[in-house]
Amino acid sequence: MAQEPLRRVLVTGGAGYIGSHIVQTLLLQRRYKVISIDNHSNSFPTALSRVSQIARDALPDDATDQDKQSTVIDSYTADLRKKEDVEFIFKQYGKGGIWGVIHVAALKSVGDSSDFPLEYYSTNVAGTLQLIQVMDAYECRRFVFSSSATVYGTPPVVPIPETTRLAADSVYGRTKVMCETILQDLCYAEPEKWRVISLRYFNPAGAYPSGLIGEDPRGRPGNLLPLLAHMAIGRVKDTTLRVFGNDYPTRDGTCVRDYIHVMDLASGHLLALDALGPQSTVFDNCPTRARFKGYNLGKGKGQSVLEIVEAMRKATGYDYKTEIVGRRLGDVPDLTADPSLAEKELGFKAPHDLDTMCRDLWNWQTKNPQGFGED
């Protein structure tokens, strides 16, 4: 029986932490030809060469030429804000040549977004707008959007259902709300053409179990777990972790977040991509004519900052010291997902627990003390 031809899928931010794990998950399917766009502002090209290596090593002895071709990534260094860059890439494959897009690329620091709002609106909103305009011109209208739980702001109900109104408390969160609004409006205007799934997720953690790829942010990590890993390995010289607030209405007073293993998150993106196919029924119950769906991806169980520190202490053996400082602008007390809709309609599951996330993160960090080793 002949193989189905490979579907070309474009992943923006494909060399980044989340993007590289999504690309790796797609490659192991041997059903997709992956195209990556990345400007490498917070990523390293080495990540994609290692992803290709993982896919090649997993090939069976009787691998076909097409199977082998699926391990090769078409990688482009480009800026989504430059329309000519994006058009150049789509032109390589022609109209209808790219089956779908997974849009991961974005600036993502809640704190930095308040200090540099124009940079965040330019990259996250204008970049997304440019991308979908070029997609439309090249008749590529299947779109998985990597959104964020921050779109909910301070939610009235926790765990958070997808029916919660979108009211972000930070500039970063507002950029994601704007992108979702644009996409939903587009789907409403052209329901016969566009299919969009927005994935609202929480805090990705961990790494591919072999330790070949993982999180390697440029500069000082802005997220808690990689910061703790860098402290333990000696890349960050601070001896004390600053905890932003301990007077939140949570079990220990520190912020609670829904941590999800990056491999579970990547599998959620694959499920969403598959749900954009012609046989999918996920859009049958849309409340309007727009073929747009938002899903939470998470564990449904939150972890506090102090609980994360304790889990990393257990995984690394490093004796972290903490200092409580003032609250940070834009932080909300509890962001825990209700992932039941994604479980029901996409078949999503997140089996990896916090200890596994910390163990896989530390495995990556100890095998790659300098990350990907690039300047």
UniProtKB/TrEMBL annotation:
Function: Mutarotase converts alpha-aldose to the beta-anomer. It is active on D-glucose, L-arabinose, D-xylose, D-galactose, maltose and lactose.
EC number assigned by the record: 5.1.3.2
GO biological process: galactose metabolic process
Pfam families (alphabetical): GDP_Man_Dehyd
Name of protein: UDP-glucose 4-epimerase
Cofactor: NAD(+)
Domain annotation NAD(P)-binding: ranges: 10-360
Record-stated family: Belongs to the NAD(P)-dependent epimerase/dehydratase family. In the C-terminal section; belongs to the aldose epimerase family.
UniProt pathway: Carbohydrate metabolism; galactose metabolism; Carbohydrate metabolism; hexose metabolism
UniProt keyword terms in alphabetical order: Carbohydrate metabolism, Isomerase, NAD
Quaternary structure (record): Homodimer.
Catalytic activity: UDP-alpha-D-glucose = UDP-alpha-D-galactose
